[in-house]
Amino acid sequence: MQKETLLDIEWLWRELPMTLQVALMASDGWLLASDRRSGEYSNPGDDSAAFVARDVRKIELVPDCQLAFACAGAEEVRQAGAALVRRLRTPASSFNWSDLQNELTRLAMSSPSKMALPFGFSRLTVALFNIELQIPQLWTVDFARQGMTPRLPEIISEWTLAGDFNNGARLLPQLYYSKRSCRELTRLAAWTILFAGLFNPSSVSGVDVLIGENGSPARFLSDKELNQLRDEFQDFHALVGQRLK
């Protein structure tokens, strides 16, 4: 079955239940990981309406623009990511690769969120290869609720989270991150999302991992690779449970 992606879907995220995403800067590139759970209410505005869960890839890879982006929060964030792609694809674009902060600030200021969001912000995480500087970079763009002062986009030198900031899985990168290779950080990226599903199973499920390694096209981990990481995680979780009994 063909899975939906961020640029494919046209339905409005009327209610986006909590997600969790993590971005890690590696010594030889970057990694983006996200859960896959989303959906919408069958009858928006009706508190008794059923929630229809959907399996959606929340990381969008755009090879021709040498970037990827992940969305956590309101529909406006996805639209901003799509707008960034359109701008980069415009012939003779004046996109200023040497001043990415200013370019991304335009996005944040042009799409204030209309939703009541946790902490008042939604987050777009952008992973790219800076054509001007010839280096891999991670950026976060926070979209403020209307009436709030936007935050300036930030370049990420180590790691960052988006979505469920209170999820206990945030402790994994806090405790175990160090700048290592993409290969060595793959387990940390995937397990952070899988742990998040344990802490908040009604709102976080599934996992995707995108690796942008220097000198190679960015790629998603295959189902085989993800299944192996899930098996390792489940074995580890069971072992900890046994030791603590």
Features:
245 residues, alpha+beta, Glutamine Phosphoribosylpyrophosphate, subunit 1, domain 1
Describe this protein's structure.
The protein is α+β, with helices and mostly antiparallel strands and 245 residues long. It has a single domain, classed as Aminohydrolase, N-terminal nucleophile (Ntn) domain (Glutamine Phosphoribosylpyrophosphate, subunit 1, domain 1, 4-Layer Sandwich). The protein is 29% helix and 29% strand. It has helices at residues 75-89, 100-110, 171-176, 182-199, 223-243, and strands spanning 4-5, 20-26, 29-34, 37-41, 51-57, 59-62, 67-72, 121-130, 135-144, 154-155, 159-163, 208-213, 219-220. Strands 11-2-3-12-13 form a five-stranded antiparallel β-sheet, with helices on one face. A five-stranded antiparallel β-sheet has the order 6-7-8-9-10, covered by helices on one side. Strands 1-5-4 form a three-stranded mixed β-sheet, with no helix packed on it. The longest helix has 21 residues, at 223-243. The radius of gyration is 18 Å and the shape is globular. The N and C termini lie far apart (41 Å). The model is unreliable at 10-16 and 114-120 (pLDDT under 50).
